[in-house]
Design goal:
single chain, 490 residues, alpha/beta, seven-stranded mixed sheet, 21 strands
Length: 490
């Protein structure tokens, strides 16, 4: 009998609800709702409106009831690192900080100087040092004498907080916790030494649970309000990238993946964490995957740069995505380049101005037309992917034979081809809905429909249309890569 599951997939700019089922070895999906998720600026800080997201989840449940869609369970995935605080009375304490809030600027260096060294922090967690990691968010709140932190009884990462609002049950899901720079990937526990050194108790966190575990069932008031049955909430891979990587349709372990969206996340899947001097030097991260795997990866600023440019351009002209791709092909290649991860592109008031300033500072001509901006962004991303793939090759315990591109960026034929040209490897695109598919398939596994990660991947491979790209113009791209490293001082 066909079983249907509800996936809530929340990104840093938008969210959506999707129903999906597996029938005769094929995945079927339907988008129910889509809604914006925007950072709220209050005074000098940036927050997420978690209560708006909660209302959108209830709307999705009510839509299922109205349309007579019987769902077996619901699973929630979100971006990483951010969290809500819960008081002793069980109430959410205010709005969660957004990871782009500037209060964490300089916090890693301060923590390393006054609490524990960089070597010790990385040695314990194996996580890429980034100022917005949960560890440094908590440290910033501690230094600010945050009333939320002082009165908090529990800390819940965003998917766990939303599951709590639905069920009244508190957990710490493993994959989302692994983004925090507080979890030890060897013993899979929140590390007390990182917390105690700054005066925080480990009992701020709830027990760890793993993907596929039932968190609890919808509370009676949610059932009454939405009209759905008393279905369970399943702990899927709460970190969206973990759900997405679960959906990579790989044939074997010899692959790298690129989750392409607002952020680009490039890495490999390994059985064990890779924590050594080389991985620390390269600033790679070891995050949790399903079935005990490790996602050894690096965060790269992705389509965020283009999204911010489009916001500026939308005041005068609005481009469809096919128009953007076509425009970029009309511009001359390699006029200028940027390092997508340069701090000046983190959250500037004007992205186009930040790009022009970077080009001027590096002695390059500035992009003049929208087409030139787009071409430069795509080429710079492809070349940055080459930098990271070379790093991966230096530490991977196997030969990397192919790059799987998943997420919304997998539909960008031009960027996929540019990436293949830059890295000198075949690129396979799809699924574009990787996060939602992974979310649904973990629920399907919890329901007993599939029993292993590889069987999940086999079903996914048979359910999607993928496309393969082969490297072209190797000499041209080798020259561009050398120029890129010089311009960006990499």
């Amino acid at each position: 009998m066909k079983k249907t599951f509800l996936a809530i997939d929340l990104g840093a700019t938008s969210g959506r609800s999707i129903v999906g089922s597996v029938e005769n070895g094929i995945i079927y999906m339907q988008e129910l709702t889509r809604f914006p998720n925007t950072i709220k600026k209050i005074r000098d800080h940036y927050f997420w409106n978690i209560f708006d997201l909660f209302e959108e989840i209830k709307t999705a449940l009510a839509t299922c009831a109205k349309d007579n869609i019987k769902v077996e369970s619901i699973g929630i995935d979100t971006w990483g690192v951010d969290f809500a605080m819960v008081g002793e009375d069980g109430m959410i304490l205010g709005l969660p900080y957004a990871y782009r809030d500037p209060h964490t600027d300089g916090m890693p260096e301060d923590y390393f100087k006054n609490v524990l060294s960089r070597d010790k922090v990385y040695g314990i967690t194996g996580i890429q040092i980034m100022n917005f990691n949960s560890l440094f968010q908590i440290y910033a709140m501690k230094k600010e004498n945050s009333s939320m932190l002082k009165t908090a009884d529990k800390l819940l990462f965003i998917p766990d907080a939303l599951s709590y609002l639905l069920t009244g049950k508190m957990v710490t899901e493993y994959t989302i916790a692994s983004t925090s720079q507080i979890l030890n990937p060897l013993n899979k526990e929140m590390d007390n030494s990182l917390l105690k050194a700054m005066g925080i108790e480990k009992n701020l966190f709830n027990p760890i649970v793993y993907p596929g575990v039932e968190i609890g069932r919808l509370t009676d008031d949610i059932v009454k309000e939405t009209g759905v049955e008393n279905i369970p909430v399943i702990a899927v891979a709460g970190h969206d990238t973990a759900s997405a990587v679960a959906a990579v349709p790989a044939k074997n372990e010899k692959f790298a993946y690129l989750s392409s969206g607002t952020w680009s996340l490039m890495g490999i899947e390994t059985k064990d964490p890779i924590i050594n001097e080389r991985s620390m030097e390269l600033n790679f991260t070891n995050e949790g995957g399903i079935e005990g795997t490790t996602r050894f990866l690096k965060n790269i600023t992705g389509m965020w740069i283009l999204e911010q440019c489009r916001k500026e351009w939308d005041k005068d002209v609005q481009y469809s995505y096919p128009e953007i791709v076509a425009m970029s092909q009309s511009a001359a290649p390699f006029k200028c380049m940027i390092d997508p991860d340069h701090p000046s592109f983190a959250n500037p008031e004007s992205m186009t101005r930040a790009i022009c300033d970077y080009c001027e500072a590096t002695g390059q001509p500035k992009p003049e037309t929208h087409a030139e901006f787009i071409r430069m962004i795509f080429e710079s991303l492809a070349l940055k992917y080459r930098v990271v793939i070379e790093m991966l090759k230096s530490v991977a315990p196997f030969d990397i034979e192919v790059l799987h591109v998943i997420g919304g960026g997998s539909k960008n034929d031009l960027l996929n081809q540019l990436t293949s040209n830059a890295i000198g490897l075949p690129v396979v695109s799809g699924p574009s809905e990787a996060t939602a598919i992974g979310n649904i398939m973990i629920q399907a596994q919890a329901a007993g429909i599939v029993n292993s990660l590889q069987k999940m991947r086999n079903i996914i491979a048979g359910s999607i249309d993928s496309k393969e790209y082969q490297p072209q113009e190797p000499a041209v791209w080798e020259e561009a890569y050398n120029k890129f490293k010089k311009v960006c001082k990499l």
